[in-house]
């Protein structure tokens, strides 16, 4: 195999520099998110709530759990983080509860996408292989801070040109098969349980489990993948689109859950909530504002901004990726048409479902383009 020419290496460096410059707005969003999603001023209040031993709502007192894993430092960190979730978990802030159920349903779409990107052959030997770094840190500082940085790196390191070589778009099937089962075990089960478990006190146990979903999902992912054979070498030559049906099924399932949560939020807003969709999802002040007078209000604003920084930036990233497709001539749809379709999907199905559907469309286009390119070379 011949080594890349100096001219080719120079072109690659120039291309990466160009993509870095184009992606700078994503880095700017990361910086803005870090400034906005800063709980430092409210941590002393959360510590006081934790020390009090309980939260009170609707005439009910609920004891706060201090211990779950019986690892002192870990339990201390997670029990403090859990305080910020109490208003939505127990529903004494019903608006925040609805927003969080939709947010975490959208997060399931993103988690499936990140895991699939991590096992794409074209992303080998890049940080895209380690989504746990972003999700685990995101549990501490807010995923809204880490997600834009992931998208910034992805745009630089995973250009569409990487997939012109046959099989580079392909995901490794034994890992691909493990994605949704792992997400169900590590993410969906604790998420839905912490919001819908009938025994209120037990919800905190599920919250402790969900806080470590990056670890439990990763362990489940690696364990389940061992049940399947690695067919990547054969697939890249003879079946470069073999993973697509499974990808559609897995991301489609996550899209359905996210769309269901969005439609439920619409229904709740119109029938019993007394709050508009704008009030549920769009913050009216900064979490850092001096007008924020309670921990409950801070939580509501923080989580609304977190949702926007995660999924909103994901949609911006998706626009970048479609820009690549249009520049390569792989998508002929005009920008106005793309934005109108996206806006309609956003309104009816929600941001998470829109993200998943857009990513699936891109996956289909990239797969077809790579296969057609390979076929042309053989002729």
TrEMBL record:
Keywords: Membrane, Transmembrane, Transmembrane helix. It comes from the Eukaryota. The chain crosses the membrane at residues 20-37, 128-153, 173-195, 207-229, 249-268, 343-361. This is Uncharacterized protein.
């Amino acid at each position: 195999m011949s080594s890349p020419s100096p001219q080719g290496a120079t072109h690659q460096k120039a291309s990466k520099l160009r993509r870095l410059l184009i992606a700078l707005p994503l880095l700017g969003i990361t910086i803005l998110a870090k400034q906005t999603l800063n709980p430092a001023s409210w941590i002393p209040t959360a510590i006081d709530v934790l020390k009090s031993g309980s939260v009170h709502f609707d005439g009910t007192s609920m004891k706060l759990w201090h211990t779950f894993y019986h690892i002192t430092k870990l339990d201390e960190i997670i029990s403090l983080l859990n305080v910020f979730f109490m208003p939505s978990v127990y529903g004494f802030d019903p608006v925040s509860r609805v927003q969080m159920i939709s947010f975490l349903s959208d997060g399931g779409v993103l988690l499936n996408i990140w895991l699939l990107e991590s096992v794409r052959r074209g992303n080998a030997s890049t940080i895209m292989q380690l989504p746990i770094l972003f999700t685990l840190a995101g549990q501490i500082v807010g995923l809204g801070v880490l997600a834009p940085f992931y998208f910034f790196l992805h745009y630089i390191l995973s250009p569409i040109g990487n997939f012109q070589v046959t099989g580079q778009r392909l995901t490794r099937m034994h890992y691909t098969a493990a994605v949704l089962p792992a997400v169900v075990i590590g993410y969906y089960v604790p998420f839905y349980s912490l919001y819908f478990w009938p025994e209120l006190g037990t919800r905190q146990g599920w919250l402790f489990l969900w806080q470590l979903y990056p670890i439990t999902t990763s362990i489940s992912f690696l364990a389940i993948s061992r049940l399947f054979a690695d067919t990547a070498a054969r697939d890249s030559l003879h079946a470069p689109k073999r993973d697509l049906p499974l990808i559609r099924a897995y991301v489609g399932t996550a899209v359905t859950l996210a769309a269901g949560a969005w439609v439920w939020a619409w229904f709740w807003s119109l029938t019993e909530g007394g709050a508009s969709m704008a009030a549920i999802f769009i913050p009216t002040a900064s979490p850092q504002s001096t007008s924020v007078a309670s921990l409950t209000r801070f939580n509501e604003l923080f989580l609304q901004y977190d949702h926007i920084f995660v999924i909103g930036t994901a949609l911006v990233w998706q626009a970048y990726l479609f820009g690549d497709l249009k520049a390569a001539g792989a998508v002929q749809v005009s920008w106005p048409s793309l934005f109108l379709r996206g806006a309609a999907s956003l309104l009816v199905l929600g941001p998470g479902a829109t993200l998943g559907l857009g990513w699936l469309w891109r996956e289909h286009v990239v797969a077809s383009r790579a296969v057609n390119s390979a076929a042309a070379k053989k002729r």
